[in-house]
Amino acid sequence: MNPIPESERLRILLEGCLKADRKSQELLYKQYFGFVMSICLRYSKSKDEALEVLNDAFLKVFLKINTYDFTRPFNVWLKRIVVNTAIDAYRSQNKHYHHLDIESVYSFPNEETSPIQKMGYEELLLIAKRLPKNYQINFNLYVVEGYSHDEIAKMMNISVGTSKSNLSRAREMLRNFLKDVESHKIKQK
């Protein structure tokens, strides 16, 4: 007997989820937990917050599974739901947050090989958690996920200028943090 290919197993799981089969939902949750959690951690300040976003995202997946196009990659559809859920969580926590437009912010020059560009992926994500939440989300969407400022502005209900400003400020905060770390290392020698 031949083993069932991965794509066929996923299709069977998704069809079970379409029928609201609890066992299929549980198996899908377990199979994609790590993938979804890695995304949630990029947009959250803590594991508890990430887990809350993860659970909300899976709930949306199970409720909207009928909108999934089986001819498209499931990971892409799932990732989009997770990122949107993280942004929704951010919005609900920050309803009264006031944004500054880029014109009101001093623009920092981009260095050709900044310390940020020299960092490893995991190290960068870890340090990005130190940013204020709106900068962290903007930074992740632009740098990690590859969204444009127009897309980010629509997702976060901010102007394109605010998206650019948030990214600029996030990069500057990261540069300053890295300079502090470097000067601390030099003093210890």
UniProtKB/TrEMBL annotation:
The keyword Transcription applies. Pfam families: Sigma70_r2, Sigma70_r4_2. The lineage of its organism: Bacteria, Pseudomonadati, Bacteroidota, Cytophagia, Cytophagales. Belongs to the sigma-70 factor family. ECF subfamily. Residues 28-95 form the RNA polymerase sigma-70 region domain. It comes from Lacihabitans soyangensis. Keywords: Sigma factor, Transcription, Transcription regulation. GO terms for molecular function: DNA binding; sigma factor activity. This is RNA polymerase sigma factor. GO terms for biological process: DNA-templated transcription initiation. InterPro entries: RNA_pol_sigma-70-like (IPR039425), RNA_pol_sigma-70_dom (IPR014284), RNA_pol_sigma70_r2 (IPR007627), RNA_pol_sigma70_r4_t2 (IPR013249), RNA_pol_sigma_r2 (IPR013325), RNA_pol_sigma_r3/r4-like (IPR013324), WH-like_DNA-bd_sf (IPR036388). Residues 122-174 form the RNA polymerase sigma factor 70 region 4 type domain.
